[in-house]
Write a structure and sequence with these properties.
Distance between the termini: 75 Å
Strand content: 25-35%
Number of helices: 2
Number of domains: 2
Helix content: 25-40%
Number of strands: 8
Largest sheet: 8 strands, mixed
Strand order of the largest sheet: 7-1-4-3-2-6-5-8
Order of helices and strands: HEEEEEEEEH
Shape: flat
């Protein structure tokens, strides 16, 4: 091999490495969806606490991605977190479905989990999911545990 072909191979290796790092960064930032989602419909849900939920977070049902969060805002009248999501047209959920903010993995990425209800009518564009469960905030759980532990008094083991 001459010097020129070695330089070409090294250059290709560097370009492939940079492309791999870019792909990994996009996946980690939840921006790695390169395919178009097709037709969607928009629904909203209100939560008392959204935790660390961000726009572009996945919406899942039974572990399957069925949509994406498009925006997270504060409702100025109810002071609740208002989450707007786009659900793929291929997935129809009953109107009495519930939405939960769940945590995935050790990194704590949050997503919306949809649980279908039993209503005969399906959610339509612009509907609001009324049955919601807010995010579980680890700091609040630890605070409650410590508060209950000190309220029990010292020296008592249960």
């Amino acid at each position: 091999m001459n010097k020129r072909s070695i330089e070409i191979f090294v250059g290709l290796f560097v370009v492939l490495g940079a492309a791999g790092l870019l792909f990994l960064a996009l996946k980690a930032a939840n921006l790695g969806s390169f395919t178009s989602g097709g037709a969607t419909y928009t629904v909203q849900a209100r939560f008392d606490n959204i935790g660390g939920l961000k726009a572009r977070a996945p919406v899942r049902s039974a572990g399957v991605n069925v949509g994406r969060v498009t925006s997270v805002t504060l409702d100025a009248q109810t002071y609740q977190g208002l989450v707007t999501m786009e659900i793929n047209q291929g997935f129809l959920f009953p109107r009495d479905s519930s939405a939960k903010i769940l945590t995935a993995g050790l990194l704590g990425d949050q997503y919306i989990g949809l649980e279908p209800g039993g209503d005969e009518k399906d959610l339509a564009a612009g509907d609001v999911i009324t049955q919601t469960q807010s995010a579980v905030v680890l700091e609040n759980l630890i605070g409650q545990f410590l508060f209950n532990r000190t309220a029990d008094g010292p020296g008592e083991d249960k």
